[in-house]
Structure formats: structure tokens, C-alpha cells
Design a protein that fits this description.
2 domains; about 290 residues; 10 helices; 3 strands; mainly alpha; 3-stranded antiparallel sheet
């Protein structure tokens, strides 16, 4: 159960999005720390893991009289000039092919800018605590890509993506790049354009098509054969990353493709593992890794 599941509708703040708060307060309920609105005193949202850790550190500093006041101000959604691709420099660098790197960068930067700040689950019902709150989707994508990168170094990836006993280094490297690109981009079209940025059910198809459209300008005579392999596989791996969950009651008429190829199943598996609520990805360790 995540934080949003523990609060009633009457306890949720409705005014925070419409005012310019001078600060916020905090409250504990059922062992979860919540950010609360100073204007109405109601709950805005649960803190994510990093935020909660930071607040605990700040409180300890207050006890030691190192600081005397904590004020939290809300950053405007578009109050930044940072491109989305800049948030994923580390993950993009895992891709060995420079052209594919550039396609991934351009695709991210063409996606809605709000993916820099929104949670991985708009309802709060899915994903572990670290994927909720401000920047949760970014953390989710980083974790998915990190798991993929780790597994790519094992025979599990080779056997799953290419078949048991695969040993052609060049092909393995191309498929590794395909998996990494798909993992980085799989949720880039997840939000709708409403103020709440609710999840779009067919976001796998939208993200896959955005990648495909972006890749067109990078096709040349020299890389034609490479692109004929890479573009369709990245596209299908993104499009099918939801696995067996291909339909939804609220999305009538939409049927997502199931992963069939080994590379598609691999991308789905990485996303599925990271989205389990019991997973606690250590970002401090990951951020310190090369």
C-alpha cells in the first residue's frame, strides 16, 4: 500500500495547485510522511524516499542547532531550461552507437516536458515508493535501464534476446543497444495533457511511434542496413513493454501488442521487476557507479 491509498478524498489538498505557498508542513500517518499545504493544512502528497531521507537529515540538523528553519517552495513545472535528455546522460552513454544515442536524446526532448517531474504512477497505486512523488518517472526509467544494463552483461540476456549459445559479439552489442534504448524511452509518452498528467494507456504505442518518427532523419545510405534492424526492434520493444496487460476498461478499443520476440520480453521483464512495490532501488549506490 502506498501513501495515496491511506488518505481519504476529504483529506487531500485542492488549493495547493492554485496558490503560491510560502512553505509546507509535514505530517505522519500510518508510518508514511506526507507533505501538507500551509493554507488548508490538508495533504498534498506522500514524500518519496529521497525526500523523506532529506527531511530526516534536516530535522537532525535542526536538533543540533545547525539550521533553525525549513522552508519548502514548489517549483513550477516548466521552471527549468533543462532538456529531458540531460537527465539521462548516464543511461544514454550505455548505448554504444552514437547515432542511436542521438535518436534517443531527440526522442526524449520531443516528449512532454512534464516527464521530468511527474511520478511513475499517476494514481499512486502502482510502483514502489521511490517511483512516486516529484521526479518519480525519471527514477523509474533510470532503475529499469540500470537493471537492463546489469543483465546485459550475463548469459541470461544473450540466451533470452538471441537464443541459447549466441556468441556473435557484434550482434549481441547491437541487441544490447536496442534493449537500452527501449528501456530509456518506454514511458516517455506516459502522461496526458491534463493538469494531473494521468497515464495514457496507449503510451507504449505513442512512445514507439515518436521514436520511429524521430529516427527517420538519421537514416543514411551508409547506415541503412543497421537502421533496418534497430528501428523496428526498438519500436516493437517499446510498444509491447506492458506485457500481458494489453487492455484496460477505461481504454475501449485499444489493444496493446504482447511481447513475442526475446528482446521484447527482456524489456518487459526489466520494467516489470522494477515496478514491483517491494523493490527498493538504491539510487545513492547507483549514482556513485560509473
Amino acid at each position: 500500500m502506498d501513501g495515496l491509498d491511506t488518505i481519504l478524498k476529504s483529506e487531500k489538498c485542492d488549493c495547493f495547485k492554485d496558490v503560491k505557498p510560502s512553505g509546507c508542513s509535514f505530517a505522519m500517518k500510518n508510518g508514511i510522511t506526507f507533505l501538507c499545504c500551509n493554507k488548508c493544512g490538508k495533504i498534498i502528497r506522500p514524500l518519496d524516499t529521497k525526500e523523506e531521507h532529506l527531511i530526516l537529515q534536516l530535522y537532525e540538523m535542526m536538533k543540533d542547532n545547525k539550521i533553525t528553519k525549513i522552508t519548502i517552495t514548489r517549483r513550477k513545472e516548466n521552471d527549468t531550461d533543462m532538456k529531458t535528455s540531460e537527465l539521462f546522460k548516464k543511461e544514454i552513454a550505455y548505448i554504444s552507437n552514437e547515432t542511436l544515442q542521438n535518436i534517443v536524446k531527440d526522442t526524449l526532448d520531443a516528449a512532454p516536458e512534464c516527464i521530468q517531474t511527474i511520478p511513475a504512477s499517476s494514481s499512486g497505486k502502482f510502483h514502489p515508493k521511490a517511483d512516486l512523488g516529484d521526479g518519480g518517472l525519471v527514477r523509474h526509467v533510470k532503475a529499469v535501464t540500470a537493471i537492463a544494463k546489469t543483465m546485459i552483461d550475463t548469459d541470461i540476456f544473450k540466451n533470452m534476446a538471441l537464443g541459447t549459445g549466441a556468441d556473435d559479439y557484434e550482434t549481441i552489442n547491437i541487441y544490447a543497444d536496442i534493449a537500452l534504448a527501449a528501456c530509456i524511452l518506454h514511458d516517455c509518452m506516459k502522461p496526458d495533457d491534463s493538469p494531473k498528467h494521468s497515464t495514457v494507456f496507449d503510451h507504449p504505442l505513442k512512445a514507439a511511434n515518436l521514436f520511429k518518427e524521430t529516427a527517420k532523419k538519421y537514416i543514411t545510405k551508409e547506415n541503412m542496413n543497421y537502421m533496418k534492424v534497430v528501428i523496428p526492434l526498438v519500436h516493437s520493444s517499446i510498444a509491447s513493454h506492458m506485457g500481458q496487460w494489453t487492455t484496460a476498461p477505461y481504454a475501449k478499443g485499444i489493444v496493446l501488442p504482447k511481447p513475442k520476440l526475446g528482446i521484447e520480453q527482456f524489456v518487459h521483464l526489466c520494467d516489470y521487476i522494477v515496478s514491483r512495490k517491494f523493490i527498493d532501488f538504491n539510487f545513492e549506490v547507483y549514482d556513485g557507479m560509473k
